[in-house]
Amino acid sequence: MATTADIRNGMCIDIDGQYYFITEFLHVKPGKGAAFVRTKLKNVTTGRVFDKTFNAGVKIDEVRIERRPFQFLYKDDMGYNFMNTETFDQIPIPGDQIEGVQFLKEGDVVEVQIHADSGTVLTAEMPVHVVLEVTYTEPGIKGDTATNALKPATLETGAEVRVPLFIDTGEKIKIDTRNGSYVERAK
Predict the structure, then answer these.
(1) pTM
(2) Mean pLDDT, rounded, for 113-140
């Protein structure tokens, strides 16, 4: 058991059987009245974010989370199959628990968050940036680069993103997995 004095960003807590990550917190000591802690909580399963206020000194249930690297092997009807890079154990993870799954390709390493006591998988996070090859995009027209216009492009994973007009089929580009935006050409 922890108290509100132990709250920190990234901490996972249990509220009514649901797990939440603390994304922001602020200890408030008003001039009149008791102190309290304002937090922003993100639901682990749904991803929904909401505000919650705790009175100072209230006990909260902290959940121990372990972060482990897992390598993506293949996808089948059970979900996405990963291998622990340290123990070589294989586990399936449903696609809805993986953030940025449309940019996942074989061999990619993701960080999986596992409940330390029960061993259940909570979420899997892709690296912030990945390098993927453009498999198809319309050719750009010469002289049409005065504006930062974007065109659709299909990547090797099947995901579709918007890229600048100068990107051609066969080029490797860096993608931000959080929002699916083009970052730059890969070097």
Answers:
(1) 0.75
(2) 87
Question: How far apart (Å, rounded) are the C-alpha atoms in residues 62 and 181?
Answer: 35
> Two tokens at 61?
């249930």
CA distances from 138 to 77, 151, 161, 166, 182 (A): 33, 8, 13, 10, 16
What pLDDT digit, counting tens, does each position of 31-83 carry?
888 999 999 999 887 788 999 999 998 999 999 888 899 999 999 888 899 99
Beta carbons of 6 and 20 less than 8 angstroms apart: no
Residues 180 and 162: beta-carbon distance below 8 Å? no
Q: How far apart are the first and last CA of the chain?
A: 49
How many residues are given for the chain? 187
Between CA 137 and CA 37 the distance in angstroms is: 50
Walk me through the domains of the chain, giving residue ranges and CATH numbers. Answer: 2-62 (2.30.30.30), 65-125 (2.40.50.140), 129-185 (2.40.50.140)
